[in-house]
């Protein structure tokens, strides 16, 4: 029995025990580092989001949680992006306390943000930097949470304002299309490196700003000596954004922001599109294997003694007249004829 198979019964038991202890559906789980305003050091927990509650475990094998955090009265959630370390921090503001949570990466922080806002606001956030599959999971979480609230009389009922927050009733919320294809979750330096290293992919990148609320546009001017420039894009109310220029420009939607840069430069700026897939199949290794196999099938001449004699007699003028050296030896007549023909070709 493999190690993976031996762990399956243990994982199933842990899952059912946690399900029995919490009596709530599991929506998302991962490691988190958590602290509050009273403590300076972070503590690492395995955290499960069940319903509108975070359950904290000392590790991912514990069956009983050590603490739980009710999010039903969440006041605010703010993600703090940083370029100083790979970890990302986000802040949960509750009526009685403020919690500081830290993840391994910005992607994990975005996932936590998405799932928490989905269950607390009963709507899938329309501005998420996630893959379509992750967005579909949040849509499923939203439906499950609505069913749970409807079936539990002690849970806060779904109000009219909450019903109208969901932008669509389709099975899939296309939040990815709201973010231009040239958006990348990278830092200022990483964006500059991408433009300098791959100029053929484009020269305009949209990226998050350091404050996690706004955006930045990084461009590489198509001149004889290309230079990198950065422009800040402030998020206003609703879906409006303002480009900080000498005369600020306010547009609706990030796609319009990108279009503005393209139109104002008359097409000199082009969105950076990363080509992740290769279009050329490298067959060099296959050709080498075929060549080796072909060589093995060729008839082998029994001239090894002659070659050895040539190598041993390096002092002799082999390059000048190799055939004359061995033509009088006790070789068979056929080999003599081959050597004489070789001499004629060399001359």
Automatic annotation (TrEMBL):
<dbReference type="GO" id="GO:0019901">
    <property type="term" value="F:protein kinase binding"/>
</dbReference>
<dbReference type="GO" id="GO:0007169">
    <property type="term" value="P:cell surface receptor protein tyrosine kinase signaling pathway"/>
</dbReference>
<keyword id="KW-0727">SH2 domain</keyword>
<protein>
    <submittedName>
        <fullName>Signal-transducing adaptor protein 1-like isoform X1</fullName>
    </submittedName>
</protein>
<dbReference type="InterPro" id="IPR039111">
    <property type="entry name" value="STAP1/STAP2"/>
</dbReference>
<keyword id="KW-0597">Phosphoprotein</keyword>
<feature type="domain" description="SH2">
    <location>
        <begin position="171"/>
        <end position="277"/>
    </location>
</feature>
<dbReference type="InterPro" id="IPR036860">
    <property type="entry name" value="SH2_dom_sf"/>
</dbReference>
<dbReference type="GO" id="GO:0050861">
    <property type="term" value="P:positive regulation of B cell receptor signaling pathway"/>
</dbReference>
<dbReference type="InterPro" id="IPR000980">
    <property type="entry name" value="SH2"/>
</dbReference>
<dbReference type="InterPro" id="IPR011993">
    <property type="entry name" value="PH-like_dom_sf"/>
</dbReference>
<feature type="domain" description="PH">
    <location>
        <begin position="25"/>
        <end position="121"/>
    </location>
</feature>
<dbReference type="InterPro" id="IPR001849">
    <property type="entry name" value="PH_domain"/>
</dbReference>
<dbReference type="GO" id="GO:0035591">
    <property type="term" value="F:signaling adaptor activity"/>
</dbReference>
<dbReference type="Pfam" id="PF00169">
    <property type="entry name" value="PH"/>
</dbReference>
């Amino acid at each position: 029995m493999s190690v993976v198979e031996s762990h399956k019964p243990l994982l199933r038991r842990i899952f059912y025990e946690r399900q029995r202890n919490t009596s709530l559906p599991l929506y998302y789980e991962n490691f988190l580092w958590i602290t509050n305003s009273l403590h300076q050091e972070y503590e690492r927990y395995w955290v499960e989001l069940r319903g509108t509650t975070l359950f904290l475990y000392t590790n991912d094998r514990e069956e009983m949680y050590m603490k739980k955090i009710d999010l039903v009265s969440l006041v605010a959630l703010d993600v703090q992006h940083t370029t100083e370390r790979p970890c990302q921090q986000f802040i949960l503001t509750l009526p009685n306390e403020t919690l500081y949570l830290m993840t391994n990466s910005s992607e994990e922080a975005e996932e936590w943000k998405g799932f928490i806002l989905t269950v607390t606001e009963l709507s899938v956030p329309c501005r998420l930097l996630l893959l379509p599959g992750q967005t579909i999971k949040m849509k499923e979480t939203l439906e499950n949470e609505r069913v749970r609230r409807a079936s539990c009389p002690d849970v806060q009922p779904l109000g009219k304002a909450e019903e109208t927050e969901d932008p669509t009733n389709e099975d899939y919320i296309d939040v990815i299309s709201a973010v231009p294809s040239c958006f990348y979750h990278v830092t200022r330096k990483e964006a500059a490196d991408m433009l300098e290293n791959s100029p053929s992919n484009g020269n305009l990148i949209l990226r998050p700003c350091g404050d996690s609320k706004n955006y930045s546009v990084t461009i590489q001017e198509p001149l004889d000596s290309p230079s990198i420039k950065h422009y800040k894009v402030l998020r206003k109310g609703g879906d409006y954004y303002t480009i900080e220029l000498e005369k600020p420009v306010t547009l609706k939607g990030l796609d319009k922001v990108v279009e503005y840069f393209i139109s104002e430069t008359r097409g000199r700026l082009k969105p950076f599109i990363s080509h992740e897939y290769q279009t050329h199949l490298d067959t060099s290794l296959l050709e080498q294997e075929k060549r080796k196999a072909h060589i093995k099938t060729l008839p082998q001449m029994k001239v090894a003694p002659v070659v050895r004699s040539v190598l041993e007699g390096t002092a002799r003028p082999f390059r000048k007249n190799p055939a004359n050296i061995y033509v009088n030896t006790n070789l068979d007549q056929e080999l003599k004829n081959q050597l004489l023909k070789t001499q004629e070709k060399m001359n």
